[in-house]
Amino acid sequence: MAKRQSSTSRRAVKKAAVNTVAIIGAQWGDEGKGKIVDLLSREADIIARFQGGNNAGHTVVVGGEQVILHLVPSGALHPGKTCVIGNGVVIDPGVLLDEIEALRSRGYLQGEDPLRVSERAHVIMPYHRAIDLAREKRRGAGKIGTTGRGIGPAYEDKMARVGIRVVDLMDESVLRERLAQTLEDKNSYLRTVQGEKTFDLQEVFEQYRAFGEKLRPYVSDTSHFIDDAISRGQRVLFEGAQGTMLDIDHGTYPYVTSSTTMAAGVAAGSGIAPQRIREVIGISKAYTTRVGGGPFPTELNDEVGEKLRRDGAEYGATTGRPRRCGWFDAVVVREAARLDGLTGLAVTKLDVLRGLPRIRLCVGYKLDGAPLDHPPPTVAAWDRVEPVYEEMDGWPEDISAARRLTDLPRAARSYVARLSELTGVPLAFVSVGASREATIVVNDPFG
Ligand code: IMP
Fold first, then answer.
1. What tens digit of pLDDT does each residue of 231-256 get?
2. How far is Cα 384 from Cα 363, in angstroms, rounded to an integer?
3. Which domain CATH number covers 173?
4. How far apart are CA 284 and CA 328, in angstroms?
5. Cα 163 to ligand 1 centroid, rounded to whole Å
6. pLDDT at residue 5 above 70?
7. Of the candidates 186, 217, 248, which is a domain's last residue?
8. Annotated catalytic residue, options 38, 58, 132, 329
């Protein structure tokens, strides 16, 4: 008896102590992370982005009004919180300043300390955007389908040690020197290799110096800020962008983004130790989508795919491109569960499946006739992968009013239970509509 009591109280203590939660996309991005971040932000003190840039687009519906955020964490929609843009993010300062202004004019980002931007974050320069677009144009049919925001070229410069960081914008002489060093190279590449327009040193310098001045009030050492906050017991929510299958190392390379999108990126991209991350919630749609090129074994190029696109409003929040749609792929989400160490699963857009008489789920792959239970390393192999499907009953009912699992029709309940079983991750949330309220909270990671 005494033994049982002590293990129960240990569990209670552990639960109460959770003050860091990471939200990670378990598919190819656009899983509905913004909505779950928005929900959990109510309980958090700090909401931090740690990778990616304005390639992300988080759509949140607040009071019937749609708000799309590209750089500022979705937590900005709650008063009294501090949003952090961490060192691992690449920042287009023009886009960030516009977003700050748009949010402020709608009454957001008004608190005492609403936004902090890491001094170590790298800056997206106009030549990064130009190079991104020029390369995609030349790739033709083999294009990656990037968002054209200069993300890849900015990360390339970071790794090549020729990037310009936010802290460099704070010092005119450093900015001029760094820019002079790199611009000659970029102009020569743009002119001779890509046949594109070049950039004027003075013009870029003036523009970015001015950006630096406007950003100055927000710029600080965010690594220590977050770490100290965690030590004080404050609650920190880490907001991932894109998804695990777009990870630079473990995604469907080269059809990936240029950052570490998986949970391991939280530590490096916000400047904290990995042990600091307590709970990792993987976000997955009840089906699958991806934008841009690359492998997608369960893609549906038929009327079911059309239905998912139409009913799920599957158009990119950043580029407006129609998303490719397909069945749920347990191989992908299981891999995310392993790579990210998922402790909870949020299944989003369950309502979109309504009306399908039968629903298919991919439970495994076959590669050249042999079973394969995890993603292969090359696009050539991905292209030969055949999904192995299981079928379940659909449901005709509108489920958008469900607030508990028991409110769901039996078929929908069985479906989400099967997703949890196939991926080995316990359910944390089930989203049944776009609004904040249309959510079943199965297990709140903050307790
Ligand atoms: P980049 O990040 O713009 O370089 O694009 C590389 C790939 O990642 C492309 O296939 C994009 O469509 C995809 N991608 C980038 N950001 C997002 C996102 O926020 N959601 C979904 N896909 C994304």
1. 999 999 999 999 999 999 999 999 99
2. 16
3. 1.10.300.10
4. 9
5. 21
6. no
7. 217
8. 58
